[in-house]
Write a structure and sequence with these properties.
elongated, alpha+beta, 8 helices, Nucleoside Triphosphate Pyrophosphohydrolase, four-stranded mixed beta sheet, 9 strands, 271 residues
Length: 271
């Protein structure tokens, strides 16, 4: 995984005076040292990689400016570009284009947001969709979830909890400090009482969609794996149903699982 360890969450309470002081210090340092650092960076890139190096250096700066804009203009963009319940701008690790792409996928762009997206697409086709960063650290508006894809006879294994109104691909949320493999192994053992063969696990992909059963704006990011297991599939007490679904059963699953159904259908695994 590429998620960064972060001991101090960005949403935790902070001293407003300290925030203002750090802002002024960083601004002064940027004004005083920024031009020299930029000039040195250009020369260093030119002499080490030529004009290609300059292009790479300027692209990194452009992405950083875009990330700064996502924080600086977050309240304005949230008011003008997205509908209520949309994916919000403001993640300091994400670009404006990435957040724009997420809202485009969700269908939560306003008319003005759609206009901006069309302009960007004229310059660079599918710009916002191609800019979505699936490796940024999940914010408070994300559920970080792992899923095990198990297919037999062109049908996929799904489960349903007693308090849920939709079927889900087996898996669950990551506990603090767990890797993908550790979290998935634990969840499948708890839900289906089988042991995954961790050496056989293969990464399938990352899928994002609005979280089913949560307040508007909450997203789920699901990292999917497939692999072998030992034991006999047997749902535990919190699982009310264990079923094998085909692509025609797509309407019975959560939003993120629908994306996975579509992906597997296009690949020819699910029919």
């Amino acid at each position: 995984m590429i998620f960064k360890k972060q001991d101090n969450q960005p949403n935790s309470k902070s001293n407003p005076f300290l925030g203002a002081l750090l802002f002024l210090v960083s601004l002064i340092l940027l004004i005083l040292t920024g031009p020299f650092g930029f000039l040195y960076g250009l020369l260093y890139s030119l002499f080490t990689k030529g004009f290609r190096g300059i292009g790479e250096y300027l692209l990194k700066i452009a992405v950083s400016i875009d990330q700064l804009g996502n924080v600086l203009m977050q309240h304005l963009l949230n008011a003008l570009w997205i509908k209520k319940g949309g994916y919000r701008f403001g993640n300091r690790d994400e670009t404006i284009s990435s957040a724009l792409g997420r809202n485009k996928k969700q269908g939560t762009l306003t008319r003005f947001g759609k206009l901006i997206d069309k302009i960007l697409d004229k310059l660079d086709p599918n710009h916002s969709l191609n800019s979505i960063d699936y490796y940024i650290e999940p914010s408070g508006g994300f559920l970080d979830v792992l899923a095990w894809i198990h297919i037999a006879d062109n049908r996929i294994l799904c489960t349903k909890s007693a308090d849920k109104d939709a079927y889900y691909i087996p898996g669950g949320k990551r506990e603090p400090g767990e890797s993908d493999v550790q979290a998935l192994y634990r969840e499948i053992k708890e839900e289906l009482q089988v042991l995954l063969d961790t050496s056989s696990l293969k990464f399938i992909g990352i899928f994002e969609a609005p979280a089913h059963g949560f307040q508007p704006g909450m997203m789920v990011r699901m990292r999917c794996y497939t692999g072998d297991y030992d034991g006999e599939l047997c749902p535990d007490s919190e699982i009310s149903e264990m079923v094998w679904l085909s692509y025609s059963d797509r309407s019975m699953v959560s939003e993120v699982d629908k994306l996975i159904f579509d992906f597997l259908n296009k690949k020819g695994y699910l029919k």
